[in-house]
What we know:
Layout: H1 2-16, E1 22-24, H2 25-42, E2 47-52, E3 61-63, H3 68-80, E4 86-95, E5 98-107, H4 122-135, E6 141-148, E7 151-159, H5 169-173
Helix pairs in contact: 1-2, 3-4
Amino acid sequence: SLMVVSLSSFLRKVLELDPLRDLTLAEEVALETEYLRIEQERFSDRMSVSLQIPRELGDALVPSLILQPLIENAIKHGLHFSSGFLKITIAAAQKGETLVLFIDNVTQAPMPFHTAPRSDLGIGLANVEQRIRARFPQMGSLIAGPISPTHFRATLTMPLRTAKRPDTSSELAS
């Protein structure tokens, strides 16, 4: 089936990744899109995904698979704790020298948020937070929590760095 093919292709790409290597945001989103395609096949009638990644941020560098646990969390919480339709949005923005990534899940019915979100960040979110703070102690952060009873957002902040483009200006001058 198509799902088995996407799953094996996704796993193969993930296993080839060096966890300490950065990916461009475009590469990271391409991997996540493959993962989301698998989940969408499982929950096709209950889930939609929207990507809002400005083209100019496509070559911004991010730690490999940093979005994976956040997306997984959005699906798990959005689908398992609420009936009805789930809309997941993955967005990127530049704010000064920083890259900000948003993973939003919006459900039709309220999700049961716990009153102490810090203690209940969940293993996946806690791992992402540790990874981003260790990697970028000055400006790496993960903030996750409800915006409304039906809207949960994870916001990941890190320095904006881009994949070095080959410099062709000197060749053009000669």
